[in-house]
Amino acid sequence: MSDFDADHQLLALGGTTLLVFVSQGCAHCRFARQRLPSMLLPVSHLAWIDAGESPGLVQRYEVFHLPALFVVRDGYFHGALHARLSAPELSKAVGEALARPAEELP
C-alpha cells in the first residue's frame, strides 16, 4: 500500500486488518515482518506500509515510532495498538481496539 492507494485498498478489504507501518532500516520492523505473519491473531489481513515510501500516510496516521500498528475493520478505523509483538498481547490489544467506537479512516 502507498499514499496513493491505501484508502481504496483498506475500504475494499473485508474483515479486520492489522495495518503495520515499517521501515527498511528498522530492526524491530524486520522482527515484525518475520513474526506477525505466523502469529495467530484475530485479524483477517496484514497490510504493510513502508513509512519511507509513504510520508503522507505517516503524517495522516500520526506515526511517531516504528513499527506502528493500527486496526481497521470493514473500512473503519479503530485506532492504534500499543502492545509488545507477542500474540497474546496483540490479540488483547486488537480486542480492545475493536471495542472502541469506529471512526472514518484518517
Structure report:
By secondary structure, this protein is α+β, with helices and mostly antiparallel strands. The protein has a single domain, classed as Glutaredoxin (3-Layer(aba) Sandwich), CATH 3.40.30. It contains 4 helices and 4 strands. It has a 4-stranded mixed β-sheet, with helices on one face. It is globular, with a radius of gyration of 13 Å. This is Thioredoxin. InterPro entries: Thioredoxin-like_sf.
Quick synopsis:
This protein is an alpha+beta fold and 106 residues long. It has helices at residues 6-12, 27-35, 55-60, 87-99; strands spanning 16-22, 45-50, 68-73, 76-81.
Side by side, the strands of the main sheet go 2-1-3-4
User: What is the CATH first-level class name?
Assistant: Alpha Beta
Question: What average pLDDT do the residues reach?
Answer: 94
Tally of distinct domains:
1
SSE succession: HEHEHEEH
The largest pleated sheet is described as: 4 strands, mixed
Distance between the ends: 15 Å
Low-confidence stretches: none
Protein name: Thioredoxin
InterPro entries: Thioredoxin-like_sf
Notable features of this structure?
106 residues, alpha+beta, Glutaredoxin, four-stranded mixed beta sheet, 4 helices, globular
List the helices and strands and how they pair.
Blueprint: H1 6-12, E1 16-22, H2 27-35, E2 45-50, H3 55-60, E3 68-73, E4 76-81, H4 87-99
Parallel strand pairs: 1-2
Antiparallel strand pairs: 1-3, 3-4
Organism: Pseudomonas cuatrocienegasensis
Protein name: Thioredoxin
InterPro entries: Thioredoxin-like_sf
